[in-house]
């Protein structure tokens, strides 16, 4: 068995033990006293009213999805900040050569020589340009969602044109617009 397979087996075994131990321990320790009150549906501390088969407004899901999308994309800023800061530190000609070499070793562990400050300055500007493009794409998506009205909790009909309102009322009776 290779070392990699052995490490994977150890990792999976440790994960299974860490998962199953608290579950088994909880089953042994917790009391079992079923009651009708415990069997009731619990929803945020409020008594359940009506059927559970209610159609939720789509805006809840849209807002949650938009939050997840933008939150996850913002997480990509942290690795960029590390590269940008390290490249700027390595490009600083005022630092001694050994400190600049240590900064480059964080970016590329195989490199132990002091870099050319001009080359590291170019790497820093490349990282900045990468972020500018990434942030630009985020802003275009955000502007599109804002313009479309997906960020509004209650959409207003005041901003719609008469043609849009008539399309909403009866989409089949609206003549095409000549361009």
Structural commentary:
The chain has a domain at 58-152. Helix 4 runs antiparallel to helix 5. The chain is built from 7 helices and no strands. It has helices at residues 3-29, 36-39, 58-75, 77-91, 97-107, 117-148, 162-169. It has 179 residues and is an all-alpha fold.
Per-chain topology:
Elements: H1 3-29, H2 36-39, H3 58-75, H4 77-91, H5 97-107, H6 117-148, H7 162-169
Helix pairs in contact: 4-5, 4-6
Q: Tell me, briefly, the overall form.
A: flat
**Which residue ranges are poorly predicted, with pLDDT under 50 across at least 5 consecutive positions?**
none
Order of helices and strands: HHHHHHH
Beta-strand residue fraction: under 5%
Mean pLDDT: 79
Strand tally is 0
> How many helical stretches?
7
Q: State the helicity in percent bands.
A: 55-70%
Question: What structural class results from the helix and strand content?
Answer: mainly alpha
Strand count, sense and barrel status of the largest sheet are: none
* Rg measurement, Å: 29 Å
Gap between N and C termini, in Å? 70 Å
């Amino acid at each position: 068995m290779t070392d990699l397979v052995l490490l994977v087996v150890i990792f999976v075994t440790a994960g299974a033990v860490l998962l199953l131990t608290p579950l088994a321990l909880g089953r042994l320790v917790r009391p079992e006293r079923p009651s009708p009150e415990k069997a009731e549906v619990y929803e945020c501390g409020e008594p359940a009213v009506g059927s559970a088969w209610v159609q939720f407004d789509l805006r809840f899901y849209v807002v949650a999805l938009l939050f997840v999308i933008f939150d996850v994309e913002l997480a990509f800023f942290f690795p960029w900040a590390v590269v940008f800061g390290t490249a700027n530190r390595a490009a600083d000609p005022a630092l001694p050569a050994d400190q600049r070499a240590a900064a480059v070793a964080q970016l590329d562990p195989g490199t132990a020589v002091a870099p050319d400050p001009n080359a590291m300055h170019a790497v820093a500007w490349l990282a900045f340009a990468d972020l500018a493009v990434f942030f630009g794409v985020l802003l275009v998506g955000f502007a599109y969602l804002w313009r479309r009205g997906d960020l509004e909790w209650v959409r207003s009909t005041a901003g719609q044109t008469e043609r849009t309102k008539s399309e909403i009322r009866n989409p089949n009776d609206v003549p095409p617009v000549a361009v």
